[in-house]
Amino acid sequence: MKVIIKNLNYTYIISKSKFIGIIHKVYSKEEIDNILEEYRKKYSQATHICYAYILPNAKKYSDDGEPLGTAGIPILDILEKNNLCYVLGVVIRYFGGIKLGSNGLVRSYSHTISETLINNIKELEYGYLIKITENYDKIDKIEYLLKNDQIISKQFLDKITIYAIINKKILENFSNIHYEILEEKII
Q1: b/e map of 1-27 (b: 16 or more CB within 10 Å)?
Q2: Backbone angles phi, psi at 156, to 5 degrees
Q3: CATH 3.30.1700.10: does it fit domain 2-123?
Q4: CA atoms of 49 and 99, how far apart (whole Å)
Q5: According to CATH, what is the number of the domain 126-186?
Q6: What is the per-residue pLDDT for 29?
Q7: Looking at the predicted structure, is the pLDDT value of residue 126 above 80?
Q8: Which of 30, 51, 62, 184 is positioned for an S-S bond with 90, CB 3.0–4.6 A?
Q9: Quick check: 182 and 130 in contact, CB under 8 A?
Q10: 36-68: per-residue pLDDT in tens?
Q11: For residue 171, is pLDDT > 90?
Q12: What's 104's DSSP letter?
């Protein structure tokens, strides 16, 4: 099973119609509902906001008024063909006045979501959200072990406190560093 690396978007224009593809890493139906609601507000002038998602025990798609099977199913097909989970694919369409036909719509929605996935897929990996609390003399070692994209936040008080998401392999290198595992995560 695979996941996306990061949330990305891609814009595709064909026959004056604009397709905005957005891919999200998601963990719950509530999170998906919130993202979709945000897009309905942000893109309120869009003609269609079509989507598909895959979670461990759920999948769903929506054509949002496009002809049946021309938007949501193609998005879902691309997600499934890439063996993805914990993913939401959204394509926002602004109609340009020229009808694309069913085959043109399927190709456009498939192309748009496919482009958001290029170089953005990795194997599913489990890791941890950790809290590191250490003296300042260990900051160089901590920063050596962590990549910038793993660090969520840093606080500099009496001691340094760092919140990070790391995999199990990196955690094994933290033998002389004080940390607390806050939760298991999919990374």
Answers
A1: ebbbeeebebebeeeebbbbbbbbbbe
A2: -115, 100
A3: no
A4: 17
A5: 3.30.70
A6: 96
A7: yes
A8: 51
A9: yes
A10: 999 999 999 999 999 999 999 999 999 999 999
A11: no
A12: H
